[in-house]
Amino acid sequence: MMNRWQFFKRLAPLLALMVLVLSACGRADLSALNPQGPVAQEQFGLMKLAFSIMIGVVVIVFALCLFVIVRFRRRKGDKSIPKQVEGSHKLEIIWTVIPIILLIILGVPTVQTVFNLSKDHSNDPDAVKVIVTSHQYWWEFEYPDLGIKTAQELVIPKGKTITIEAKTADVLHSFWVPSLAGKIDTNPGGSTNKMFFSAPKEGVYLGKCAELCGPSHGLMDFKVKSVDDASFDRWAAALQEPVAMPSDPAIAAAFESKCLVCHAVGDKGGPLYPNLTGIGSRDSVGGILINTDDPKYSNEGSTYDNLHRWIENPDDVKPGNLMGKIDLTQQELDGIAKYLSELTLDYEK
Amino acid sequence: MDWLTTVDHKKIGILYLIAGGFFFLVGGLEALLIRIQLWKPLNDFVSADTYNELITMHGTTMIFLAAMPMLFALMNAVVPLQIGARDVAFPFVNALGFWTFFFGAVLLNVSWFTSTGAPAAGWTAYAPLSGPAFSTGHGMDYYVLGLQIAGIGTLIGGINFLVTIINMRAPGMTFMRMPMFTWASFITSALILFAFPALAVGLAALMFDRVFDANFFDPNNGGNAVLWEHIFWIFGHPEVYILILPAFGVISEVISTFSRKRLFGYSSMVFATILIGFLGFMVWAHHMFTTGLGPVANALFSIATMLIAVPTGIKIFNWIFTMWGGSIKFTSANLYAVGFIPTFVMGGVTGVMLAAAPADFQYHDTYFVVAHFHYVIVGGLILGIFSGLHYWWPKMFGRVLNETLGKWTFWMFYIGFHLTFFIQHFLGLLGMPRRIWTYLDGLGFNEMNLISTIGAIMMGIGTIMFFLNVVITNAKPQNAADDPWEDGRTLEWTIPSPPPEYNFKQTPLVRGYDAYWKEKMDGHKGMTPAEPIGSIHMPSPSILPFTMSLGLFITGFGLMYSRDWTFITEHIGFYVAGLGLLITFGSMFLRSVYDDHGFHIEPEELEDKGVKA
Ligand code: HEM
Ligand SMILES: [Cu+2]
What we know:
The structure holds two protein chains of two kinds. By secondary structure, chain A is of the alpha+beta class. Chain A has helices spanning about 1-20, 40-70, 90-115, 230-240, 250-260, 305-310, 315, 330-340, and strands at about 130-135, 140-145, 150, 155, 160-170, 175, 180-185, 195, 205-210, 220-225, 265, 270, 285, 290, 300. The longest helix of chain A is centred in the N-terminal third of the chain and has 34 residues, at about 40-70. By secondary structure, chain B is mostly helical. In chain B, about 65% of the residues lie in helices and about 0% in strands. Chain B has helices at about 1-5, 10-35, 50-80, 90-110, 140-165, 180-210, 225-260, 265-280, 295-305, 310-325, 330-355, 355-365, 365-395, 405-430, 445-475, 515-520, 545-560, 570-595, 605-610; strands at about 510, 530, 535-540, 600. The longest helix of chain B is centred in the N-terminal third of the chain and has 35 residues, at about 50-80. At the A-B interface, helix 1, helix 2, helix 3, strand 7 and strand 9 of A face helix 3, helix 8, helix 9, helix 10 and helix 11 of B. Protoporphyrin IX containing FE binds near residues 66 and 377 of chain B.
């Protein structure tokens, strides 16, 4: 019994060390331990400080524990009665004061960071303003200064400060891009929350909803795509171009009557549900069906296949989502999926 | 029938234990189903809806229907004995507390068998997801009414313990001579007194929203969804301390007994307990750092939360120094208690990490939090309860649990526990949100989730081993000694195991801290009595607590289905609700008009009843 116990206790500090090793781990586009922008970097700094203090505490307490239980085990047949110590003011003061000192070391930078990260950049002329509206189970991104609206993929110019106004159209959700910044809730009613972040490097970062919002809460993913300034401008311009309808009139009619009642492409259609302009160049369908020509997992496929799969039965992909099964013939389904998969915006060089 | 009418605190303790144990199995089964769903990516073992029902019911069941009642079981079984009392202050109310808890719990679980399913908005039931617009069907109604009824039981139970501990202590048992478990129960009861009304108010408001179309939490009609978060956490944060303080009490008793040493720094322990209780009310908004309360609130609640580490640290070091220089015996009970210390320290340090608000923006609602609170609740509270059960089992049932099996159980459970939850810290940091039904492949979550599931299965096996132990032990003769651990320090070990109906033939005279130990050290065989042998007044059993609670149960159903049953006739639901209330109030009326003086046990009977029952 005893040996196993010791073994475990020796293991514990080792496991704690693992924290440090792991801190270089995780996918760079997803892990909070692998920050890719200044906001996440600052948060990670605070996390590292807290980790270090806490590992110190854990190691000391575990060592004390281990020593005590090994040293003071009762030997067989021991009937002696240990001294009944009442306490020790000196010791008790020590272990009151030391934690207080540790807390001050952690508390001061905590308060500093709280105020740093709550700065309001929304009047900064260089910042890009985005209104994020969460829906069961998708994300809408509006750029009020540019007059554009898109969904599921937040395209940003690299290095610029992005200021977010976070709202919801229904229940609570929470906007979270771990490798760029911590989360902020989207509250129903009039209150909007603000946050900011920036991504100095080009790349695609994974974002998630972090507040239970219904059956497909876990599938409410989105992407943040950081591109260079010129690409961003081309993207913003392309998004405002009119979009051609499907060339086959039958498909076009079905698309207009069955899809555009809710969705918009270009200047046509309704604003209720995700804007589909440029959907062919997004990285995923529905945030979770990853577009790739070399699919490895069951949630991956070509853009066409993913769109086909989604439109055929959205509820299969995201249970409880509000699109519902649309009544389409096989030709219409194939045609619309093909049309949408070719609805691209060539904005990256 | 005996068990339906009993008002004896020891039997009520056993009732709480059976009910709590049962719901622990239910909650554990739910946890296993959750873990099976998550063992591999893109799994569809259960549907998304069922998954959310499982997490909601798992959380709710574990906290309200398993952990709380098991603590109440220990408190009922032990507190009156530790303070040298013949019963609790209000035995009738005690029974009522159990039955309202029980019927509330049953009502909540009935939801599984209805066509609209169990509640699915998480145990925190955040509005507006929990409101009528987004949780259609009756799941949330069961949550609201089931918890409301069960909450009544907890509240009156808490009040009862407060009065008992204030009023019924044996002569000489001053506050600063009270055993730590009694102290912890006392502070816990005080927390219940202040926290549960907040829950009751929140649930009532949510009930109005759901059943009567009110708009407390509906922002479209002037309500406020964030208001629910505040009300819930003003209750919910103290709730965590309501759970953990009694476990602290258990650990103090067990470690001191099996180290053969007096608790180190008793008065600082008492002080720390009070301080933790107090601070517990000051920090609720640390659950809401991402809600957008602004930097000032976030900074203040950050610091306030971190402060709790100080009294908690005092406790940890006092326990270690209780063992220091002692003679430590590793019984199963003590294994749990000693295993508790490092585990709880782990939960505590992650708690301080979470308290740093800007870092919490990254941790919040991820598996890091799941890991943290399970380190605290399972690694703290459940280990504490197991420790207490092994420790007091002989006192409660007159039989010592099998030690060998007990130790195996401990290792199975303990290793399983760390396997399950340690790794979840990293899952959270690497980007896995909590409460997700499934996760995509290729994100780097797969192996860790698999390990976690294996650990959960080990914990499940451990739990089953414990129940096996109970069954095996139950088949043995009832032959535990009065003081089976031989190093008992407090009053409960001075009387037979299990104690007779009246606990103490003569109320003992307490001459110091660790009363029994003091007598033993002074060479006495037992306590000095504080009164001559005389006739003992006992309360009579009564079925009324049962019927009162049954009435509330019926009322709950009526309210819930008031809209669906209109095809029978208009308002039938309200008639049913009325009938339920009639039963409840009728029972109350009977209780008031019927003069029941109880009965007496005469000195002659004491002689032959005084030996083992
Ligand atoms: C058998 C051991 C246990 C296992 C394997 C386990 C596992 C889990 C898992 C996987 C979740 C879901 C996390 C998520 O998706 O967000 C969860 C949630 C939870 N568990 Fe446990 N758990 C166990 C015991 C307990 C105990 C004993 C308690 C309390 C006394 C508890 C309290 C909770 C709470 C409050 C939640 C949150 C529910 C919610 O999100 O609404 N668990 N648990
Ligand atoms: Cu969401």
